[in-house]
Amino acid sequence: MPISMYQASVPRFVSILGNLSNILDKAQAHVDAKKIDETALTNYRLFPDMLSFTKQIQIACDSAKGVVARLAGVEIPVFEDNEKTLAELKARIAKTQAFLQSVTAAQIDGTEDKGIVVKRGDKETHYKGMQFLLGHALPNFYFHVTTAYAILRHNGVELGKRDYLGNP
User: pLDDT (tens digit, 9 = 90+) per residue, 46-96?
Assistant: First the structure.
């Protein structure tokens, strides 16, 4: 039985975002236990030319809501990139999950060949739905979630593979 575009997207994004939210709980516990300023984590970058932890979370959320909205043919919700705290990042994740869960399988299934155009500045990239989901959006989403995880591990937050994968 083939997997549907919906099953390959919405439940996967919602699940990993839930794991990411749980990881933020562990980050908050670490901050509280060690009595450190949480901006030491939220502003941290693995390398000077990489984006901060906060930006990794924002982009992961943007990637998930962007692909789902494009496939479903609905407006992409716009969230201000103004989160400063772990609690605010958790709220962004929750808003993203709520949006994703508002989209139905009927809106996404059958979009394998749907034309998708992504604009970055004055450049347009053209995809088909499945190519966009599997070849761009999912890898981009996982890249930013993984980078956020790596930033926290690098800073001593006690996390393991099960925290990242959860219990799907």
Answer: 999 999 999 999 999 999 999 999 999 999 999 999 999 999 999 999 999
pTM value is 0.95
Q: Give a three-class secondary structure readout of the chain.
A: CCCCCCCCCHHHHHHHHHHHHHHHHHHHHHHHHHCCCCHHHHCCCCCCCCCCHHHHHHHHHHHHHHHHHHHHCCCCCCCCCCCCCHHHHHHHHHHHHHHHHHCCHHHHCCCCCCEEEEEECCEEEEEEHHHHHHHHHHHHHHHHHHHHHHHHHHCCCCCCHHHHHCCC
In the CATH hierarchy, which fold is given to the domain comprising 10-165? Four Helix Bundle (Hemerythrin (Met), subunit A) (1.20.120)
